[in-house]
Amino acid sequence: LADAGGAGGEGQRVMIIGGDGYCGWATALHLSKRGYEVCIVDSLVRRHMDLQLGSDTLTPISSIYERVAKWKELTGLEIKLYIGDICDYDFLVEAVKEFTPDACVHFGEQRSAPYSMIDQKHAVFTQTNNVMGTINTLYAIKDYAPECHLVKLGTMGEYGTPNIDIEEGFITITHNGRTDTLPYPKQGGSFYHLSKVHDSHNIHFATKAWNIACTDLNQGVVYGVKTEETIMDPVLMNRMDYDGVFGTALNRFVVQTAVGHPMTVYGKGGQTRGYLDIRDTVRCLELAIANPAQRGEMRVFNQFTEMWSVNQLSEIISTAGAKIGLTPEVINVPNPRTELEEHYYNAKNTSLLKLGLEPHLLGDEIVETLLSFAVEYKDRVDYKAIMPAVDWKARKESVKA
Ligand code: NAD
Ligand code: USQ
């Protein structure tokens, strides 16, 4: 196994698509600090979506230009910027030709399930942006950087919630006396999750057709905000979404509890998912890059460290919140989504652990730190943005955007 600790990245060039976002920004700094030469490709569309929706991150974030300038000032390390849309193929090709990446980490997609379910326009935008962007990335690698290892962010939600164990990408099936190892069945629960399913199929085909190396990281729900690098200066602060469209379960519950809003458990709360700390996200990316897939291979890792139901999360936060003097409450709100609220869930996640991932687990200490952090910024919270605003089954536009 390649040692991904310390300055293991010396001499390697990593392009980070979506590097201005939540996972991408933290990863860009983490890899830059470890000796990788990093560039960020981002259209800044996510900042535009916040403006459209009238929502904002809990934390104040600086512009991407201020961010990379501060990083250079603090560390002497340069992060090159390519501002543009990867759906614009000419732009992407120019960036790939100029930067000549050894690895390309692709975070650059519309990543909210509720956003994709707002209406027809948002569903089509999500799938066009995500599927086209990934096909463009595959073509750019094939034609201009064939040795480049694509590390693509997928999602655990590609698998849905089947009544059998979830494997890492592939399952061996015996049918009518014959056996084969096939892609694990996919049952995405929103047009967003389905965009990732389509990406996986396209990537699988392209790796075989064009002999490209790819790692598809089926990531669970990410929580937390601080990493070793983003805490170095307020200008490097990461975003933390808590609103009903972009906020994810644990981060939302933390912010809700910090401002005295009850935690919004959708339906019965038995929905179980894989979760991980953002400090583990950046480490997983480092491990995947340091131990690349083979040419012609689509390798799939399930990227999460623990499985929790929504009810379990609300209990963990209730306990930790009470310890630091908050008064946590829970409400069961009608579930705006179409999903099972009680189900079997058992997913494998051994590949990244074998490569050396040492998970930060969701203990009281981490939750208390997150809660205290959210309390610091509670004056920035817009109560109106907290309740879910998008209904999977609604028959007409349910939020304005
Ligand atoms: P984010 O919205 O914070 O960041 C995504 C970034 O990609 C944004 O900066 C956006 O401007 C950029 N982008 C989107 N479309 C683009 C395009 N066409 N061209 C160039 N840039 C574009 O999202 P995130 O939470 O950092 O998620 C990053 C990736 O990880 C996504 O692919 C998401 O599906 C996946 N993921 C996220 C989570 C999570 O809990 N946040 C969990 C599992 C998987
Ligand atoms: N949920 C609640 N209350 C809330 C918010 C969510 O009960 O206030 C429930 C949802 O109904 C769902 C579960 O919590 O059952 C997870 O929802 P989420 O919004 O945290 O996560 P999801 O929509 O699946 O999407 C997020 C990211 C996405 C990523 C995915 C990983 O936005 O980019 O792909 O997590 S996974 O869930 O493994 O597919």
Could you outline the blueprint of secondary structure elements for this entry?
Blueprint: E1 13-17, H1 22-33, E2 37-42, H2 45-53, H3 64-75, E3 79-83, H4 89-99, E4 103-106, H5 113-116, H6 120-144, E5 149-155, E6 170-175, E7 178-183, H7 191-210, E8 213-219, E9 221-223, H8 249-258, E10 263-266, E11 272-277, H9 278-290, E12 298-303, E13 306-309, H10 310-323, E14 330-333, H11 350-354, H12 364-376
Parallel strand pairs: 1-2, 1-4, 2-3, 4-5, 5-8, 8-12, 9-11, 10-14
Antiparallel strand pairs: 6-7, 11-13
Sulfoquinovose-uridine-C1,5'-diphosphate (USQ) is lined by residues 111-113, 155-157, 193, 220-221, 248-249, 252, 264-266, 271, 273-274, 310, 337, 339.
Detailed description of the structure:
The protein has 401 residues and is of the alpha/beta class. It has one domain: 3-Layer(aba) Sandwich (Rossmann fold). 37% of the residues lie in helices and 18% in strands. The protein contains 12 helices and 14 strands. The strands form 4 sheets. The chain has a 7-stranded parallel beta sheet with strand order 3-2-1-4-5-8-12, sandwiched between helices. Helix 4 packs parallel to helix 6 and helix 8 crosses helix 12. The chain starts with 12 loop residues before the first strand and ends in a 25-residue tail after the last helix. The site of sulfoquinovose-uridine-C1,5'-diphosphate has 21 residues, from helix 8, strand 10 and strand 11.
